[in-house]
Every structure is written in structure tokens, then in C-alpha cells.
Amino acid sequence: MLKKTAFYDMHVKNNGKIVEFAGFLMPIQFEGIISEHETVRTSVGVFDVSHMGEIEIRGKERVAFTNYITTNDASKLALNQIQYTTMLYPDAGIVDDLLVYNFKNRIFLVVNASNTKKDYTWITDNKKGDVQIVNRSDEIGELAIQGPKAEPVMQKLFDFDLSELKFYWATETRMNPASLNRGGMKDIPVILSRTGYTGEDGFELYIDGKYAEPVWEMVFKAGREFGIKPIGLGARDTLRFEMRYCLYGNDIDKTTNPLEAGLGWIVKFDKGDFIGKTSLSKIKEAGLKRKLVGFEVVDKGIPRPHQEIFNNDSKIGSVTSGTFSPSLKKGIGLGYVALPYNKEGTRITARGKEPMSAEVIKGPFYKHGSRK
């Protein structure tokens, strides 16, 4: 049985094109991927990301246990701070990439939708110490409000200065329906965070699913003057791709490790033991043989997953993700290539139906987002 998020009816009312995604019925687009992409880059858009998984870890040893199952150092998190991290298998393959929220009485993990069941099983199978693990994914609805106008929109819904909520921080607070003349409704409890997957400024609202309709209405009323629009999964993917954010299942998975994926910055070898540390240390010591690179097509063509990558006549790797960039108006791609072909400026060829000449670049493809 395919699941519906708490906002499903709103997608239907807004003529969303519904597709199956990670076991859910989700909108792939509304008015069109490119126009939705441009809305987020220039103003503000709303994504339903309720398909993402939420797993809570409670108990006295919740931070120590989180440190054991993840690569980053959760012990460094202040109250209400957020951290990007990965979970590894013993051989250093990636179980998932995820966010860790440090709240007063619990650790709150946000995991990829397609991995929720697998992640929950992995976490419970590796349980140690005084912890309780709860999968709350089916109870929670989540909206992501993204774009350079996200803050003035969201400010209308809260009674404190949102400029004080910094990037990768969260707060447990309440939305104020009275601010938008919704008489008779009590304040709605929410987790409000400031992260994002687009390169633009933005916020996330985690709510009890029973509040879905009024929350949706409040957000869109608050954003009306800025031309706020619902955004589908299609534009979410092109936006994240332009920022060169990894997508689990394409760019990272159980066959890749965080060092070769360019995620070494979220691996803290000096924090103590964690699952996968021994294998990852050996990989680091032996030296990497390949790296994930971003590349731009210099003529025509759009790279696609599994296409082979060549340097002259030598096969050096394969494409993991590829798309047309609405912002750059060209094909862009990610792929693993043998060293030393990961160096900026290296000319490569992705071979699809027609060979595509491309050049390796450093950093994100799109460099002008409102979230610096």
C-alpha cells in the first residue's frame, strides 16, 4: 500500500502531478519543474517533505549512542543545534546520510524516506546503553519553506525574531494562528529549524499530521505577497543538484564511503569508536583510489546515471547523477572517477547515445544562493 502524506489533499487541490516515490504518493511537479525551480531561486516555495523519516533516541546515553552509530561528533552539539552526518556499515559503506537534532530530552534523527525502515532496523539492531528508540515517521508532517523570501514569510507566523535562528539550529515553539486572523484556533506546536536542501535560505516545520491543513493555509497566506508556490520533487532534485548535494541511492550508498564521496568533513576519527571506523581508517591510510566529482558539459547533452566516463580512450569512472541545470542552462553531472582525474579543469567524456565533452569543477554548480 502506497502511503499518503498529511498534505496529500492539498497537492490534489493544487493540480499536482502525483507519482510513486519511496513508498509514497508525492507531487513530482505542479506548474512545471523549471518554473518551480526559478520560484525557489528568486522568491519562495513550499515542499512537502513529510515522506522523510523521523527517529527519536531517548535515554541517559542517547548522545553516546548517537556518536557510536554516526560519523560526526554529536557530543559537540549545543542544545537545539543540528548536525549533518552519515551512518556506516562495518566495511565503511554508507547506511544513510541524515540530520541529528539535539533537543533537551531526546536526539531527533531525520533520515531519507526510502531508508526509514532500514535505518530504524539498523539503529535498533545496534542498540547499546540506556536508550529508547522510537520511529515517529508516520505521525509527523513536514514542510520545507525555501527561497530568499522565506524569512519574511515565516516571520508572520511566529512571535520571535527569526533572524536569531541561525543556520543549522532549531527550536521547539508554537505557530501563532491569530497573526493571520484564524480565530478560535489555539497555537500549533511545531519544531522549527533552519537548514535546507536548495542552497537558498529556508526553514522546516515539523508538525503533528492533524494540523496539516491549517498549517498549509497559514504558510500560503503568509507568502501570498511574495508569490509563494507549491514545489514538487522534480524541482527539489534540480535545486539540490545545482548545490552538489549528494543523493542517497545515486551518489552515495552501501558501495561508497564518505571519504571518496567528499564527506570527510563529517567524519571525526578522534571522537572515539563508531561503527565503520576501523575499515574507514584503513581506507584512509591506504589512500583513496577514486573521488566523487562534479562536472559541467561543455557542448550539448545531459549526463545520466550509469554512463561511463572516459579520459581520452581510458575508462576512468561512471556517472551517478545528471540533469539539466535550469540556472546554468547546461548539462551537469556527478560521478566517481579514478585519481588523479578529479582535479579541477580535467577534461572528461561521458558516453551516452552521443559522447559529451565535460570539465571537472570544484564546489557547487550554482554559486549565488541566498544561503551562503
TrEMBL record:
Domain of life of the source: Bacteria
Binding site for substrate: E204
InterPro entries tied to this protein: GcvT (IPR006223), GcvT/YgfZ/DmdA (IPR028896), GcvT/YgfZ_C (IPR029043), GcvT_bac (IPR022903), GcvT_C (IPR013977), GCVT_N (IPR006222), TrmE/GcvT-like (IPR027266)
Any GO molecular function: transaminase activity
Any one GO CC term of the record: glycine cleavage complex
EC id: 2.1.2.10
Keywords: Aminotransferase, Transferase
One GO term (biological process): glycine decarboxylation via glycine cleavage system
Residue ranges of domain Aminomethyltransferase C-terminal in the record: 290-367
Reactions listed under catalytic activity: N(6)-[(R)-S(8)-aminomethyldihydrolipoyl]-L-lysyl-[protein] + (6S)-5,6,7,8-tetrahydrofolate = N(6)-[(R)-dihydrolipoyl]-L-lysyl-[protein] + (6R)-5,10-methylene-5,6,7,8-tetrahydrofolate + NH4(+)
Domain GCVT N-terminal: 7-271
Entry-linked Pfam families: GCV_T (PF01571), GCV_T_C (PF08669)
NCBIfam families per UniProt: gcvT, PRK00389.1
Known function: The glycine cleavage system catalyzes the degradation of glycine.
Similarity comment: family membership: Belongs to the GcvT family.
Oligomeric and partner information: The glycine cleavage system is composed of four proteins: P, T, L and H.
Record protein name field: Aminomethyltransferase
